[in-house]
Amino acid sequence: MGDLVLTVETCPHYLAFSAEEIPDGDTRFKCAPPIRDEANRQSLWEALLEGHIDMLSSDHSPSTPDLKLFDEGDFLRAWGGISSLQFVLPITWSYGKAYGITFNQLASWWSERPAKLAGQTNKGAIKREMDADFVVWMPEVEFELDENYDIYHKHRNISAYLGQRISGKVLATFVRGNLVYSEGKHASAACGAPILAKQ
């Protein structure tokens, strides 16, 4: 195993939730691996801050409400996965503030290190000659993720983050310098390109 490269990642829901907080039968929280206890959550934060965890990923896994089996509360049969892509930045920031995380750490965990792992040398930072992929946000603005929040497009009730009050409102998102999201409205056409191999 001498030359083996090992990377470690975790997801926002493992940093935000603990098993003790999950109501019995609330299948919105079913994912794999399952959400563990509070001691495990704290250990994940420690590992992330100490550099033992390299990066973060969304593990975005949405489904239709019927697949979550809300009425049955059957964790064994319900769809496994948490719809989270649209909340990863504010969730990480909101929970990470208690640990003193910085904007540079957020950028490293969510952009720089994943781009490096994928061999995308033109992504992961805001620099000359690189793709202008970035987000404009207001980190101290608080908001509540309720069913009326405008970032939801469908299946609002399946989010494990429903009811959370968090910080970090995203105002705009740019991909390759093109505005693709602004104040609740999305671009009418895609402007990205498939990432098929290392660059």
From TrEMBL:
Domain Amidohydrolase-related residue range list:
39-180
Any one GO molecular function term: allantoinase activity
Q: Name one GO cellular component term.
A: cytoplasm
Gene3D superfamilies (UniProt xref):
Metal-dependent hydrolases (3.20.20.140)
- InterPro entries in the record, alphabetically? Amidohydro-rel, DHOase/Allantoinase_Hydrolase, Metal-dep_hydrolase_composite, Metal_Hydrolase
* SUPFAM superfamilies in UniProt: Composite domain of metallo-dependent hydrolases, Metallo-dependent hydrolases
**GO terms, biological process:** purine nucleobase catabolic process
- Read off the PANTHER family from this record: ALLANTOINASE
Q: What is this protein called?
A: Allantoinase
Q: Which organism is it from?
A: Rhynchospora pubera
